[in-house]
Amino acid sequence: MKILLIICIILVSANIYLIFDNSAQRSRSVALEQENQALTVYIESLQDKIQQLEVSGESSIDISKDQKIRDLLDSYLQNRSQHQVGLEASITTEELRVDLEDYQQQQRFIPDIRPIVGEFAVSQKFSERHKGVDLASPLGTEVVATAAGVVKSAYEDRYFGNVIIIDHLNHYMTFYAHLAKFFHQEGFFVEKGQTIGLVGSSGFSQSPHLHYEIIHRGENIDPETATSY
Ligand SMILES: [Zn+2]
């Protein structure tokens, strides 16, 4: 009798284990399916980019680069005129060049650009309870580093799904969650604007979106005020 009871318990617990194991496998395959879809979208977008480059030649890249430098120079000069207290009238070109280079270096590590390439909509704003912004965007849309820095960690979280955290080495950190895929591991150096992953719906998420946080000196700040959306 006792033996029968023990056998029953073993059978029941084996069944429970199998049920759990099955559901874990199912959610794993759902995640893989999503990752595949995201990668397909990404590859298609890369093909589009290559085609555009082939059509327009290399000149378009130079123009955008040139525009970037001009924008940087503009914002530098604006900043400079705002802080002009006690500034000597005669400033040499060499001094200006060194200043500009310093400024460019600083800007490079400040997270002030959009983390998503292409279309998105703010689906949840920053608040006391929600320490970042949710940006709804199609599955597989590119997620970029909003400033240069080192990947502090890249991992899978039950709630946040696939997460990547970047340390910008200047008291700024950025956090990207629910990714379909991340492309870099801990210790990897990324440039501002470099693709680090793809928008997904991993972890606790209803539909594809990026949960994005900016942390400055240990405090979360509103990404919408730090970036001009
Ligand atoms: Zn969120």
How would you portray this structure in words?
The chain is of the alpha+beta class and 229 residues long. Among the domains are: 61-108; 121-226, Glucose Permease (Domain IIA), CATH 2.70.70.10. The chain is built from 4 helices and 10 strands. It has helices at 2-56, 59-82, 93-108, 223-226, and strands spanning 121-124, 133-136, 142-144, 149-157, 161-167, 172-182, 189-190, 195-199, 209-216, 219-221. Strands 1, 2, 3, 4, 5, 6, 7, 8, 9 and 10 form a 10-stranded antiparallel β-sheet that branches. A hairpin with an 8-residue loop joins strand 1 and strand 2. The model has no long low-confidence stretch (mean pLDDT 86). Bound molecules: zinc ion. Zinc ion binds at residues 124, 130, 132, 134, 211.
Write the layout of secondary structure elements.
Layout: H1 2-56, H2 59-82, H3 93-108, E1 121-124, E2 133-136, E3 142-144, E4 149-157, E5 161-167, E6 172-182, E7 189-190, E8 195-199, E9 209-216, E10 219-221, H4 223-226
Antiparallel strand pairs: 1-2, 2-9, 3-8, 4-5, 4-7, 5-6, 6-8, 6-9, 9-10
The structure holds zinc ion (ZN).
Zinc ion binds next to loops.
Task: Put the structure in a nutshell.
With 229 residues, the chain is of the alpha+beta class. It has helices at residues 2-56, 59-82, 93-108, 223-226, and strands at residues 121-124, 133-136, 142-144, 149-157, 161-167, 172-182, 189-190, 195-199, 209-216, 219-221.
Mean pLDDT comes to 86
Strand content: 15-25%
Termini separation = 71 Å
Question: What would you give as the CATH superfamily of the domain at 121-226?
Answer: Glucose Permease (Domain IIA)
